[in-house]
C-alpha cells in the first residue's frame, strides 16, 4: 500500500505587506515544506528569503502553550475569569478611559474585528491602537485628508504597466522583495525607469536608474518643487483638477513659497540642481507614473504632509486610478490593511468609519452595542505615556512587543510595571513584553495554526489557513476575546463558532447603510457560507453585493469620498527646525534588514536567515566614524536623550555625513543592551500620531 501524498495548504505569508500566497505541505511531525503559490495574483509563486525559510521557523521550543497567572500555570477558565475581572474592576473604578488594548498588524482580520468590537462597542473605550501606528498611520491620515477615505487607489499590476516608478523612503529590495522583483522584471521587459529617493544608498537604490540621496526630511521640499515645476511646465491636467479636486491654487501657492525654484529645492535636499532637474524631467515626461512610499515617508514628524505632497503631484497631473498611475502606500505588515478595515486604530471606528455622530449611531445599531465609545482614543505613543502617568490602569497586548519596538522603549518597559491589570496574549516563546510584568499570559495560535484572513497593500484579502494542529492549549485570538466578552456579560454578541462567522459579520457591517458613501464595502463576502469562506480565493475590495469581482482601481473619474466628491489638495509644510541637541550631532535612522522580521521571534529561528547580517550594527560614514574615534568592525556606544545601545560599527562609504542607520530587530531577549528602540525619541506626527523613527539625535563613542 502506498501512502497518499500530503496536500499543500494554500495560505499567506505572515511577514510583509506584499501578502504573498504560500503553499505549505505539512510533514506530519510539526513541520512543513514551503513554496510560493503560483496561483496567487500578488506573487505568482515567488517568495523572498524570509518567506522561503518559513519552514525553518515552526518549532514549538519554549513557546507559551498554557495560560498563566502570575507566572503559574492556570486553566483557561481561571485565566479568562481573571482577565475579565481585571477589566471589569478597572472600568467600574476608573471608567473606560482607564482601559486599553494594543494590537498588531500581524493579527488576522477576524481577531482585530473581535477586539475592536469589544472595546469600542461594549466597554466604551476607543483606547484601541496597534503597532500599525508605527508603520503606516501617516498614509491613513494622508489618504483621508486627500480622498475623504483611507483608500489605496491602485493595484500591483500598475507597477508592471507604469513607465516610471518612483520609490520614496522605501528599501523595497529588502522590505518588499517580491514586489521589487516584479518591478525589475517589468523593467527588463519594457524599459520602465526606476527612481529612488532615499538618504541611504540601499540595495533598492543600487538597482535604480536614478538615486537622489536627499537629506533626511527634505521630501516635502522636493515634492513642493515638483508641483511648481509641473505647473510652470504646463504639465497640470487642468480638466481633471477642475472637475474632481479643490484647493489646487492654495497648495501651489504654498509650494511656491517653500520651493520657488530648483536652487531652493537643491539647497533643501542637499543635492545638485542637475539631480533635481533630472528627476523632475522624468516625472513630467512619463505619462504612467506610480509613486510608492513606505517608512521613510510615514515614520516622520511630517509623515502626513509628506504623503499629501506626493498625492498632490498625482492629483495635479490626473495620474491616479488609471492603469499604471497613482500614489501607492506599501504597508509594512501582513495585515495592516485588515486592521484599518475593521477600525483597529484609536482614531477609527469600524469599516473605515470615523467618530462622527452618524457613524457612531450606525455602528451602535449594527452591533446593538450597549456602551459605544464616543470619541477617538489614545494613539500608541500617547497610550503608553498615559500608562506611565497612571491614567490607563488596565492593558491587553495582543501579538506584539511594545517593550522592544515603541520609541523610548526603556520608558515603555517601566510604564508597563505600573499597570494594575496587564494581560498579554502571545504566540511566541518569550519576548521583552512577556517578561515586563504581564500578570496574565494567554497562549494564542500562531501562523500555520491560525484560520482567517489578511489584506495586503493592494487591497487583496487572502486566507491564512491552518496546516498544523493547535499546540498545547493555544487558542485563536478571536476566540480568546469572545470568551472574555462572554464573562463580561456580552456572550450573545460574540457567539461566533468559527472565524468565518466573525468575518461574515465584519463584511456585513461594511455594507450596512453604505450606498456607495464609503470606500470599504465587502458586502458580497457577507453571503459566503462556511465552505465558500474556506475556499475563498484572494479577492480585491471593494466586493459589493451586486458587482463583486475583478481588479479594481479608484478615482480615475473622480468619485472621492469627501462630502462634495472632490479630492483635496493639501497645502503642506516643511519640517520646523529643531533646537540642536548639544553633543548629539548624528541623526539616527532605523529600519529593517533583508532577512529579519520585526523583533525576530520567528525569523530568528532560522540559521539561514541569521547568516545574512548576524548582529546589531550601526552604519556610519567613515568620516563621522573616525571623527567619533570609532573603528570599522569595533563597537560603539550609541546614546540619545532616552537610552543607550552598544552596536557593531560598520563604516559605510556611501552614507551621508551626519546620518547613521541601525536596524530595529534586536531586543533585550536576543541581544542585551542592543535594543535600538531605547534610543528613539517619542516625537510624533501631529496629524497621524506616527512616531518619527528616522531622525533621533544621537552620539556615538568607542566602547
Ligand atoms: Fe513574505 Fe513579503 Fe517575502 Fe512575500 S515579499 S514572501 S509577503 S516577506
From TrEMBL:
Has the keyword Plastid been applied to this entry? no
The enzyme class is oxidoreductase
Entry keywords, A to Z:
4Fe-4S, Iron, Iron-sulfur, Metal-binding, Molybdenum, Nitrate assimilation, Oxidoreductase
* 4Fe-4S Mo/W bis-MGD-type domain residues: 6-62
Cofactors (names): Mo-bis(molybdopterin guanine dinucleotide); [4Fe-4S] cluster
A biological-process GO annotation: nitrate assimilation
**Source species, domain of life:** Bacteria
One GO location term (cellular component): oxidoreductase complex
Instruction: Report if keyword Metal-binding is assigned.
Output: yes
One molecular function GO term is:
molybdopterin cofactor binding
Q: What is its EC number?
A: 1.7.99.4
Give the similarity note.
Belongs to the prokaryotic molybdopterin-containing oxidoreductase family. NasA/NapA/NarB subfamily.
Q: What is this protein called?
A: Assimilatory nitrate reductase catalytic subunit
Q: Say which species the protein is native to.
A: Hansschlegelia beijingensis
Which portion of the complete protein is shown here?
A: 3 to 705 of 895
Amino acid at each position: 500500500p502506498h501512502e497518499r501524498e500530503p496536500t499543500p495548504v494554500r495560505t499567506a505569508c505572515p511577514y510583509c505587506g506584499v501578502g504573498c500566497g504560500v503553499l505549505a505541505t505539512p510533514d506530519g511531525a510539526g513541520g512543513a515544506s514551503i513554496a510560493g503559490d503560483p496561483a496567487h495574483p500578488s506573487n505568482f509563486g515567488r517568495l523572498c528569503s524570509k518567506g522561503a525559510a518559513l519552514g525553518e521557523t515552526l518549532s514549538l521550543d519554549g513557546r507559551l502553550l498554557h495560560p498563566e497567572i502570575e507566572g503559574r500555570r492556570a486553566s483557561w477558565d481561571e485565566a479568562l475569569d481573571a482577565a475579565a475581572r481585571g477589566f471589569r474592576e478597572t472600568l467600574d473604578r476608573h471608567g473606560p478611559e482607564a482601559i486599553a488594548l494594543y494590537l498588531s498588524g500581524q493579527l488576522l482580520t477576524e481577531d482585530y474585528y473581535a477586539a475592536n468590537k469589544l472595546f469600542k462597542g461594549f466597554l466604551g473605550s476607543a483606547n484601541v491602537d496597534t503597532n500599525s501606528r508605527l508603520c503606516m498611520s501617516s498614509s491613513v491620515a494622508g489618504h483621508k485628508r486627500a480622498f475623504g477615505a483611507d483608500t489605496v487607489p491602485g493595484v500591483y499590476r500598475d507597477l508592471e504597466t507604469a513607465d516610471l516608478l518612483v520609490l520614496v523612503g522605501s528599501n523595497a529590495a529588502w522590505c518588499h522583495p517580491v514586489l521589487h522583483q516584479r518591478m525589475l522584471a517589468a523593467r527588463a521587459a519594457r524599459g520602465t525607469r526606476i527612481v529612488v529617493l532615499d538618504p541611504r544608498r540601499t540595495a533598492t537604490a543600487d538597482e535604480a536608474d536614478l538615486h537622489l540621496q536627499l537629506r533626511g526630511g527634505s521630501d516635502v521640499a522636493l515634492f513642493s518643487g515638483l508641483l511648481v515645476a509641473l505647473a510652470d511646465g504646463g504639465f497640470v491636467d487642468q480638466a481633471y483638477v477642475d472637475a474632481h479636486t479643490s484647493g489646487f491654487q492654495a497648495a501651489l501657492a504654498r509650494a511656491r513659497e517653500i520651493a520657488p525654484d530648483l536652487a531652493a529645492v537643491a539647497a533643501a535636499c542637499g543635492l545638485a540642481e542637475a539631480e533635481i532637474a533630472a528627476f523632475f524631467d522624468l516625472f513630467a515626461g512619463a505619462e504612467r507614473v506610480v509613486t510608492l512610499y513606505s517608512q521613510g515617508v510615514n515614520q516622520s514628524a511630517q509623515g502626513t504632509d509628506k504623503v499629501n505632497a506626493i498625492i498632490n503631484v498625482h492629483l495635479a497631473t490626473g495620474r491616479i486610478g488609471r492603469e499604471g498611475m497613482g500614489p501607492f502606500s506599501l504597508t509594512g505588515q501582513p495585515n495592516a490593511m485588515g486592521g484599518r478595515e475593521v477600525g483597529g486604530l484609536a482614531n477609527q471606528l469600524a469599516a473605515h468609519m470615523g467618530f462622527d455622530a452618524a457613524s457612531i449611531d450606525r455602528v451602535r445599531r449594527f452591533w446593538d452595542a450597549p456602551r459605544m465609545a464616543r470619541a477617538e482614543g489614545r494613539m500608541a505613543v500617547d497610550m503608553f505615556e498615559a500608562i506611565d502617568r497612571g491614567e490607563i490602569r488596565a492593558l491587553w497586548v495582543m501579538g506584539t512587543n511594545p517593550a522592544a519596538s515603541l520609541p523610548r522603549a526603556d520608558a515603555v518597559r517601566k510604564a508597563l510595571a505600573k499597570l494594575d491589570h496587564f494581560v498579554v496574549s502571545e504566540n511566541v516563546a518569550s519576548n521583552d513584553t512577556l517578561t515586563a510584568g504581564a500578570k496574565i499570559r494567554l497562549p494564542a495560535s500562531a501562523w500555520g495554526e491560525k484560520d482567517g484572513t489578511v489584506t495586503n497593500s493592494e487591497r487583496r484579502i487572502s486566507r491564512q489557513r491552518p496546516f498544523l494542529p493547535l499546540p498545547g492549549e493555544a487558542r485563536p485570538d478571536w476566540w480568546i476575546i469572545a470568551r472574555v466578552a462572554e464573562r463580561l456579560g456580552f456572550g450573545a454578541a460574540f457567539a461566533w463558532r468559527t472565524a468565518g462567522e466573525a468575518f461574515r459579520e465584519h463584511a456585513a457591517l461594511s455594507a450596512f447603510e453604505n450606498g456607495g458613501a464609503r470606500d470599504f464595502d465587502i458586502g458580497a463576502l457577507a453571503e459566503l457560507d462556511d465552505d465558500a469562506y474556506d475556499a475563498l480565493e484572494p479577492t480585491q475590495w471593494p466586493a459589493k453585493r451586486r458587482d463583486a469581482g475583478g481588479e479594481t482601481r479608484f478615482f480615475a473619474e473622480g468619485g472621492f469620498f469627501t462630502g462634495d466628491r472632490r479630492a483635496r489638495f493639501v497645502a503642506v509644510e516643511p519640517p520646523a527646525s529643531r533646537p540642536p541637541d548639544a553633543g548629539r550631532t548624528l541623526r539616527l535612522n532605523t529600519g529593517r534588514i533583508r532577512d529579519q522580521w520585526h523583533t525576530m521571534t520567528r525569523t530568528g529561528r532560522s540559521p539561514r536567515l541569521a547568516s545574512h547580517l548576524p548582529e546589531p550594527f550601526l552604519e556610519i560614514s567613515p568620516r563621522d566614524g573616525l571623527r567619533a574615534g570609532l573603528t570599522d568592525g569595533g563597537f560603539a556606544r550609541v546614546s540619545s536623550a532616552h537610552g543607550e545601545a552598544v552596536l557593531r560599527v560598520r563604516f559605510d562609504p556611501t552614507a551621508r555625513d551626519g546620518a547613521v542607520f541601525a536596524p530595529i530587530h534586536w531586543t533585550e531577549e536576543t541581544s542585551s543592551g542592543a535594543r535600538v528602540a531605547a534610543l528613539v525619541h517619542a516625537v510624533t506626527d501631529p496629524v497621524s500620531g506616527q512616531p518619527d523613527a528616522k531622525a533621533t539625535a544621537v552620539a556615538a563613542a568607542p566602547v
